[in-house]
Design goal:
mainly alpha, 0% strand, globular, 334 residues
Amino acid sequence: MPQPSYEYGVARVRVLETRVLTRERIERMVDAQSPEDALKVLSETSYAPLVAELNSPYEYEELISKEMKRVRDFIDEISPAPAITDLFFLKYDFHNIKVLMKRKYMEGQVEDLPLAEMGTVPVEVLKKGVEEPESGLLPPFVAKAVKEVDEACLLNVDPQKIDTVLDRAMYDHIFEVCRKKRNAFALRYFQMQVDLLNLRSLLRAKRLNQGFEFLKEMLIPHGSLDVSFYSHAIEQAYEQLIKEMESTPYGKIIGEGVQEFLRTGTLTAFERLMDDYLLNYVKSVKYNPFGIEAIVGYLLAKENEVRLIRIIMVGKINNLPAEKIRERLRDVYV
């Protein structure tokens, strides 16, 4: 029987880490001549049984879904600290709540995204809970957020407001749990994530020529950069922002990300640098044998891996040149 200890969980993860896709495999998929050939490369790995079940390369999302369901069950089985590991699945719950709230108030006006099965609350429970937030079906912090969105939508239905209310509710809960459990690793990880999301919001606001009042509505609390930083940064020229951020932990991301943003007009490169930064942080701490770092690291490695597979398969199906696909790739975990 599995033992819910850090030593047991880390030992299990160490075995599975050897099966995570390497850069060499990813590069071979990118250089494949067709979607079918890309899947052939994947069939040489632990994905072989899942590839064999596909009737067509266009069904690659089924492969991804089944693999992440396996990872979800595995983390549940071995985690000695489910209160912490569940925090890393909350984004799926809140993705679902955003979709459900927008269906409720904006059906047909916004893109109707599919619901994710990776969250901590079953999708059917979320559906009923969103319709009846007083029913007691939802965790209290979720029910409170849903109620806040309902009240906001009575006055004005704004998709940005829905996202902002729910993002703040999610991170309020995450930081409350991190501090209650005194988990320095998770606290640092999410603090960096908030900083990077807020910096992305800063760039979006500047692109729209908006001022601080606009940006302030999008900022998520709990980051290491306080509000005064953003009120100053929104008024700065990009060159000055890059210069002032040079000596901070985010200097490289701002430097390279802003240059690409100015060149292309998109945040694609910035978002790739964000993902790489967080993954590299987890890689740097994953060797702690008596903590949750390696277990969370494996989860994030698998999320990163399926993101790479999706980028490659979308690129292959749409006949993108290999160099265009490669521009969008993130780092690998191993």
